[in-house]
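Feature request disguised as a bug report, sorry. It would help if multi-protein outputs had a clear separator. Right now it looks like this:
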Amino acid sequence: MRVALFVTCVNDAVFPSTGVATVRLLERLGVEVDFPPAQTCCGQPQFNTGYRRETAPLVRRTVRAFEGYEHVVVPSGSCAAMVRHHYPSFGPRAAALGPRVRELTEFLVDVLGVTDVGAYFPHAVTYHPSCHGLRLLGLGDRPRRLLEAVRGLELRELPGAEECCGFGGTFAVKNPDVSAAMGADKVAHAVETGAGVLCGADNSCLLHVGGTASRLKAPLRTVHLAEVLASTEEEPWR
């Protein structure tokens, strides 16, 4: 099976290791991965802020970049949700991309039919479900099922898991005090579990939570789900 990786601009610019981990994971499972170089931002920041006219060229570019692929894999619930739920308002060609876009855990569980990907990650981990993945994509227990199958991993329940971390894209810019308070609550709940790692499927959330944890000097590091699943006993993820 051949797929296209839609790495997202946040991962490309700030968290390239997540893209590398996604490719390593998929190739380990026998998937051929293409990286269309024309891809850029999906347009979500502009769209969510009300700049529809500025979003349109990014939508057109994204649609062109991924034409011809049956599956487009995205290690980000928020970007997948943008394409699936908002691209249809930009016309039929944009709408046609939506059903072919799969968030990483959806692709693994629903398309490949796997939950045990052969990963090894000997750490206590708690999982934060991002708002887009939870509410718009309906990822449900897919991420948890994947984590529960990882050898050596101890999954600990996160209190208030379904509460937003406070990032919300431009929400954090427009409402910084509220955003910071929500982030501090999320960090406090994660520390309460005793886990040393908070895992998530959206690096935008992990950026916010990780930065908050750093400022609060909390004993917590954030790791994208793809990096946990890419880790094996022979090649542990660093």
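(second protein starts here, but nothing in the output says so)
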Amino acid sequence: MPTETRQRQVDRSRETRRKLMAATVECLVERGWAGTTTTMVAERAGVSRGAQLHHFRTRGELVAAAVEHLGAESVLQLKERASRVGGSTAAVVELIADFYASDLFTAALELWVAARTDPELSGVVVPLQARIGRETHRLAVELLGADETRPGVREAVQITLDLVRGLALANQLTDDTRRRERLVRHWAQMLEAVL
């Protein structure tokens, strides 16, 4: 019986964390860093302020954990989607571009901008961004079937990531979907020649 009780507590705790993380990203996307408060996140998640504080002591911890968790989930979704579309360079680059045009990127962008002038947040965001950057690069290499031992291939993969990140940034203020699609198709043709 004690083992069952403990497992239920673990499950409830996991579910509370999941709700807090999803609510955090929603708040970041809708209200930005300045408008995302721990109280608002707890309310949106449907959990008590005490439960929120039990899991995350500061807003920075909460937000970084949410972006990291959802980033990991997004990477898994990206891998699954890539397995369905096949391995063509164009399809993979389009998937990566769509990944960056998501709400997760918008939430992460809010953190990057805030971390520029907030030393506490910067201490959380800089290592997080480095990990996500490495994982995204590794995933792009895997999905593209790129051989980074060949000259120029590593740089071409990084240019791909930088390009789609820039296109996602351009999409923040206006719907830039059509231009993004055109540029991604053109870049995929150029990338194919390098790979």
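Even a blank line would do. Unrelated, but nice: The mean pLDDT is 88.
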